[in-house]
């Protein structure tokens, strides 16, 4: 870590000192959601990743612009593409939250949707192994079909890392935005206070290596968000997602399979 900015020192200083005394540092990884196309905001995100040598997992939607998105990111060695849902369409009944999978969906339908979506990525030359459900809505039916797919890891929000039937779970925990009334910067104090609580939990449990996931949404960032991320990534080291889940790149499935 570099020299701490004032607000970082005020909120995190004492906790970081306890970690340093134990010879430890928080294990962080970075996930950005809702990538749809090669945009100016994406360029700003990629430049941020390069500038701070911060590995980035980009949760991408398999829409019409996926080929251009893949083409743009394939020259960025620290960027991993993940599958961000089937079509990223909310199918929950009105007033019951957000999610792409509803309770009445059977596993055969979900399995077919998952395979078709993964194949869209394969056709443009990339083989993702991580699935990120839209709105972090991890339905049991999805977890049931993942072991039979090319997906070997899943990411939601605010749970500890785990493994089920060979599929590893690695969540995000620190959303840089707040969403009530529209996405906007959460604020340095709120964000860092939550990070402190997560660090305290891990320290007291002796789970020093339990990852903490940074969550961003580049299409929704305002100036304050970008400025905070600049300071945060200059302060903390970020670890590649695949390194945390012990994975290597998967082979691209034969198109005729």
CATH third-level topology = TIM Barrel
Give the class-level CATH name: Alpha Beta
H and E string: HEHEHEHEHEEEEEEHEHH
Which superfamily, in CATH terms, is the homologous superfamily? Glycoside hydrolase/deacetylase
Terminal CA distance: 47 Å
CATH architectural arrangement: Alpha-Beta Barrel
Description:
- The longest helix has 17 residues, at 107-123.
- By secondary structure, the protein is an alpha/beta fold.
- It has helices at 6-21, 40-51, 66-73, 107-123, 140-145, 188-204, 223-235, 241-245, and strands spanning 28-35, 56-60, 79-83, 130-131, 153-154, 162-164, 167-169, 174-175, 177-178, 184-185, 212-216.
- Strand 2 (56-60), helix 3 and strand 3 (79-83) form a beta-alpha-beta unit.
- The N and C termini lie far apart (47 Å).
- It has a five-stranded parallel β-sheet with strand order 3-2-1-11-8. A four-stranded mixed β-sheet has the order 4-5-7-6, with no helix packed on it. The chain has a two-stranded antiparallel ribbon with strand order 9-10.
- The chain has one domain: TIM Barrel.
List the helices and strands and how they pair.
Layout: H1 6-21, E1 28-35, H2 40-51, E2 56-60, H3 66-73, E3 79-83, H4 107-123, E4 130-131, H5 140-145, E5 153-154, E6 162-164, E7 167-169, E8 174-175, E9 177-178, E10 184-185, H6 188-204, E11 212-216, H7 223-235, H8 241-245
Parallel strand pairs: 1-2, 1-11, 2-3, 4-5, 5-7, 8-11
Antiparallel strand pairs: 6-7, 9-10
Helix pairs in contact: 1-6
Task: Give the structure's gist in a few sentences.
The chain has 257 residues and is an alpha/beta fold. It is built from 8 helices and 11 strands.
